[in-house]
Structure formats: C-alpha cells, structure tokens
Amino acid sequence: VGLPDLGITTEPEETGDTYTENACLKASYYAARSGLPTLADDSGLDVDALGGEPGVRSARYGGPGLDDPGRVKLLLHNLRDVPDAGRTARFVCVIAVAGHGIPPQTVRATAEGVIAHQPVGSGGFGYDPVFFVPSLGQTLAQVPAATKHGLSHRGKAARLIRPLLQRLLLTS
To answer: Is the pTM of this model over 0.70?
Structure first.
C-alpha cells in the first residue's frame, strides 16, 4: 500500500547529509506512522566535476524556485567549461526498509553515465534528458521505460532489496 492508502499526508524533513541517512529517516518516519514495515528511498545525481553536487539535494538544487528544467539549466551552466572527459556522473539510490522492531536496513545502487551538453529526449523526469548512457548511445529520456528500469539506479536498488524483504517476511 502507499501513503495515500493509509491517509498519511505528512512528510519528514530530509535533514540527512547522505542518501542513506535520508532513506532511513523516511522509512522510520513512515513505519512509525503506519505501524507497517516500510520502504523509502533517497536518490539523486552525483556529478564528479562538481564535487558530487547536486547530490543528496538534487531535488532542491538551486533553491525552491527552480523546477526540473531550471535545475537542468543550472547544472549545464555549472558544467559549461568542463570537457566531455570530465562530465562523468552517476545516479544514486538508497532504499531503506524499517518497521516495528526492525532497525533500518539499506541497499545502494548506482547507474553510471556522463552529463550531455544539452537536454535530449522527452521521457523520464528530472535530470534524465542530460544523463547520457554511453553503452546505449542515448540519454535516459530517450530510452523506453522498460530499458530505463533495467539499468537505472532505482531499478537496481529495487532488485537488491527484494531478498532482504523476503528474509524479513520469513522471520517476522
């Protein structure tokens, strides 16, 4: 079930300095409110030439006045003088599971790529139009959803968390 199914409309402030801290904070927060084992994730884009930015603050990059296209524009501006070889980046996803008597447990997955010089494609969201995957020769915004899910940071993390969930269900 999702949060709306349970009538949960509040959300915790993401005060962590890492993806793991934020994922655990959210999983614990929602598990306490729902009384159920809970999955939560935190994810973002780490760009090497920017020292890991936008990182854990990817959804808030540039401040509250920017939407996804605005954040992409800011990212490209900040990378304007960086040559192709220095535009390496990765999407990161940490999924945490927590519940009554279950301390948060996490998995982490990444998807490697480079930041393109301009947005290409209309699929996906966020930074997908500038996240170029060399093995595909396309940005994530250009590939079909099934392909994206197979190689994305979230898809990989979801596959990694499955055995952990199965073990938790067998022991509870």
So the answer is: yes
The SS3 of residue 150 is helix
Closest CA to 134 of 170, 87, 102, 169: 87
Output b/e per residue, 49-87; b: 16+ Cβ within 10 A. bbeebbbbebeebbeeeeebeebbeebbebbeebeeeeb
| Six-digit token string for 145 | 């959803």
Contact 142, 128 (CB under 8 A): no
For the annotated catalytic residues, the residue numbers are 42
Strand arrangement of the beta sheet that strand 138-139 belongs to = 54-55, 38-47, 88-99, 102-115, 131-133, 138-139
First-to-last alpha carbon distance for the chain, in angstroms, is 18
Whether residue 99 has pLDDT greater than 80 = yes
Q: Which residue has the tokens 């999924």?
A: 95
Average pLDDT, the chain: 94
